[in-house]
Batch of 2 targets.
Target 1
Amino acid sequence: MNITPTQITQPRLEIRNLIRRFEGKAVVDDVSLSILPGHVTCLLGPSGCGKSTTLRMIAGVDMQDSGQIYVDGQLICDTQFRVPPERRSIGLMFQDFALFPHLSVGDNVAFGLSGTKAEKRKRVTELLERVGLLHFIDDYPHELSGGEQQRVALARALAPRPRVMLMDEPFSGLDNRLRDGIRDETLALLKEEGTSVLLVTHEPEEAMRMADEIALMRGGRIVQKGAPYNIYKSPADKEAVAFFSDINVLQGNVQGALVDTAFGQFLAPGVPDGGAVEIVFRPQHVGIDFDRAGRGPNPTELQGMPARGTVERARFMGSESLVEFRMDHDGAVLKATVPNVFLPKVGTAMWLTVRRDRCFIFPRKG
Ligand SMILES: Nc1ncnc2c1ncn2[C@@H]1O[C@H](COP(=O)(O)OP(=O)(O)OP(=O)(O)O)[C@@H](O)[C@H]1O
């Protein structure tokens, strides 16, 4: 078969300007997204931001107030026209994946399949083999572990070859050790099948691990979209930084495109004089040094000026330690993460520096 450039670049799933209101309030507010064949997009956001509602509209179990949904360029739903859920070629996988308890593993996987008995058997065998569970084909779900049941649910969802797979926190019921392996396996299988995936999660690590693209959602809106690396390295605002890690914030005012802080001056190009800004950085970009008779390390171009604080709390976190400092200059608390075990005594005076190339400067909101 010849594949035209349009087929390669045409999104498999596209949603345009979806709006859903409950009691007059838009909980999904003008959301647009498109996903290419074989790609995974993660809808990432805090609880209640509208992720599941978006998924429910695409699945066809809820109806938008406005906006359109397309699969492979074909309209499947707008406010006048609606393809029923079972004819959308969309597979679903939720945390509560609910296999049918009275059906064998094989019959669970065959459930949504059409065709002859032999054709169904072939597809069920192929998928169960692929997820390493063919030997369970005649067993019942309760005889399987949670992770095994999850893999059966994946095989069942993929059996009818859906063009799009919607996954809502599908791994959150699994314990940590199982989760990573099943996540990677699932991803590999979805890519092999060329299925486009929209995965809902509120866990940034999960999104980073699985997504080709992350859509960061807040208050019903998508606030930023991009490859995981780009979202992490160039976050749109303070909240986007905070979604991926603890943050530190310095407050300041701009004069002549410069902000004065205890760590020296920062450039804030494009912000008018008097504009209030926040300088945001992650604890892993804070350097620490010992106090030498009231003096700290020499300033450098990369680290700027050092500022002094005293240790307020130090906790061992596994591969790193988190130390909190009460700063001398304004009494605020700043956090630093340090590799390995570093647990200085409370009250120890130390000097902090900040990696300037890892700071984000945003106009203060509100
Ligand atoms: N049927 C409904 N009637 C009224 N309000 C609803 C309904 N469904 C969802 N909501 C509200 O819409 C908002 C978004 O809910 P949604 O379940 O989409 O959020 P979410 O981002 O998936 O959250 P979570 O991560 O906790 O599942 C919430 O404030 C929720 O209370």
Target 2
Amino acid sequence: MSKDLKIVLVGLPGSGKSTFGKQLASVLQFPYYDLDHLIEDRFQMTIPDVFSRYGEGKFREWETEVLQKFLNREDSYVLASGGGCPCFNDNMDLINDKAVSVYLDVPLEEISMRLGLSKAHNRPMFSGLDQGEITLKLKSLLVERDYFYRQSKIKLSGEDFSAELLVSELIRLLKN
Ligand SMILES: Nc1ncnc2c1ncn2[C@@H]1O[C@H](COP(=O)(O)OP(=O)(O)O)[C@@H](O)[C@H]1O
Ligand SMILES: O=C(O)C1=C[C@@H](OP(=O)(O)O)[C@@H](O)[C@H](O)C1
Ligand SMILES: [Mg+2]
């Protein structure tokens, strides 16, 4: 790894990658980026539009392209990835090669409640689902994705994360 420090947050949709990512970036005084927004900027289309017009396959292709390019930048930042990002192509290996990956491991019931409350309007995988269906969908996603999330260099478990605690974990990791 080079002298810059890239932190990439991974975890299920609704685990708080975007929310915690902003807090962490502010504590570290690093710039914050959201991979979904980078994709939207690059292709001038919202994520729901990519899914409905081109399908998930095209989205995954674009996601890897944007991720790869961004990881090759020579600067420090916090990047919130999309929930599926680490689980397609070789994305988790790409992330671990260039960055410190952090898995936000939040209880499913909590995530389900958050997605129910936020109406999942910008999350095409959850649109139109009721609370029970959201929980079932999250369960099946976790079965598929846990294998990838578990490859993260740091795991934070719980519902609320402290940016300061993560900074001390980072220092420990970088010393070893
Ligand atoms: N620690 C938290 N406690 C309560 N609600 C949260 C917390 N973190 C995020 N949320 C809410 O959960 C929803 C999903 O958060 P978000 O950061 O967009 O997750 P992700 O980027 O992982 O999909 C948002 O409505 C957000 O306000
Ligand atoms: O889990 C997924 O496959 C996805 C999660 C979304 O990001 P968030 O995890 O920020 O919701 C977004 O990348 C897209 O809708 C697909
Ligand atoms: Mg997000």
